[in-house]
Specification:
- By secondary structure, the protein is α/β, with parallel strands linked by helices.
- It has ten helices and eleven strands.
- Strand 7, helix 8 and strand 8 (219-224) form a beta-alpha-beta unit.
Length: 295
């Protein structure tokens, strides 16, 4: 706990300026305060510490041996404080720093990430692709600043911005027997070999919860970490993919999306952050960029 004898940065700054310039008036002009303010800061410092740092000899000011002994340490403290202030100001103005983003679905995350990099090129941004349930512990531990996660509802205890709505269903070959179906029932899905994301993925959790609520066992033959791996195996005829409608792109002309007849398969992507981080400049700007792109 601080005591009343500990000097403040303002007191040390005033003392160093007077000692260097040899003038209370010049020190006050340099610091942008009045001359009485400088005098009061040094008087209070000497009273608090019960030490003399300056001697007045008429109109001349001399430093004491004690001050000369600690002068290097005072200058070091003030230099470090200046560096800290500059770094904080730089981060507040988004001129420097590091920013960590996690995402579970690149189709949603890449546009805001790209815009942020273009807008703030001096910020070092690192993005990590992981399953939703793997991202959340990293967010809570402070290893990520923000994350894009899949969920049906906003997540308790987090600042959540809904950025995309989608429907989970099956990705099938366009020339296959299911391609023309407007939707499937769970009884039909139960008979199909499915390729899903890894167990901690939000999409898989929503899909399996809906299947369990419908009383339908599903035949998951593989769990994979990336969407690219899933569609590759669908093309190879290994099974049918579980994903959401917006994941298919113009390059996936040979595949199509078939919904399942269950409202529980409606889901959303959220941009989330810890409440303690939500007021920081970088997180605020990333949320604003994401809001503009995904509105």
């Amino acid at each position: 706990m601080a005591t009343t004898s500990e000097p403040s940065i303002r007191q040390l700054r005033a003392l160093e300026a007077v000692a260097r310039t040899g003038s209370f008036t010049q020190a006050a002009a340099e610091l942008g305060v009045s001359q009485p303010t400088v005098s009061n800061l040094i008087v209070s410092l000497e009273r608090q510490t019960k030490c003399r740092f300056l001697r007045r000899d008429g109109n001349k000011i001399h430093t004491t041996p004690l001050f000369e002994k600690i002068r290097p340490q005072i200058r070091a403290v003030l230099a470090l404080k200046s560096e800290v202030d500059q770094e904080i100001e730089s981060r507040r103005d988004l001129k420097s720093g590091a920013f960590w983003v996690g995402y579970s679905t690149h189709q949603v995350a890449m546009a805001p990430i790209a815009r942020f990099i273009q807008t703030y090129p001096t910020i070092q941004l690192t993005a990590r692709a992981m399953a939703t349930m793997d991202l959340l512990p990293l967010l809570h531990a402070g290893e990520l600043d923000v994350a894009f996660v899949t969920s049906r509802e906003p997540l308790a205890g987090l600042d959540c911005l809904p950025v995309a709505a989608f429907r989970i269903g099956l990705v099938v070959p366009r020339d296959g027997p299911l391609a023309g179906r407007p939707r499937l029932d769970w009884s039909e899905v139960a008979e199909l070999p499915l390729i899903q994301r890894e167990p901690n993925a939000g999409t898989r959790g929503i899909f399996e919860d809906a299947a369990a609520a419908a009383g339908t066992p599903v035949n998951t033959i593989l769990g994979l970490g990336s969407w690219g791996s899933i569609v590759s195996l669908v093309r190879a005829g290994i099974g049918l993919g579980v994903g959401f409608d917006v994941e298919l792109s113009a390059r996936d002309e040979d595949l199509c999306f078939v919904p399942i007849n269950d409202e529980k398969l409606n889901a959303r992507q959220f941009l989330v952050a810890m409440p303690s981080m939500a007021e920081t400049s970088m997180v605020q700007q990333f949320f604003e960029i994401t809001r503009e792109i995904c509105a």
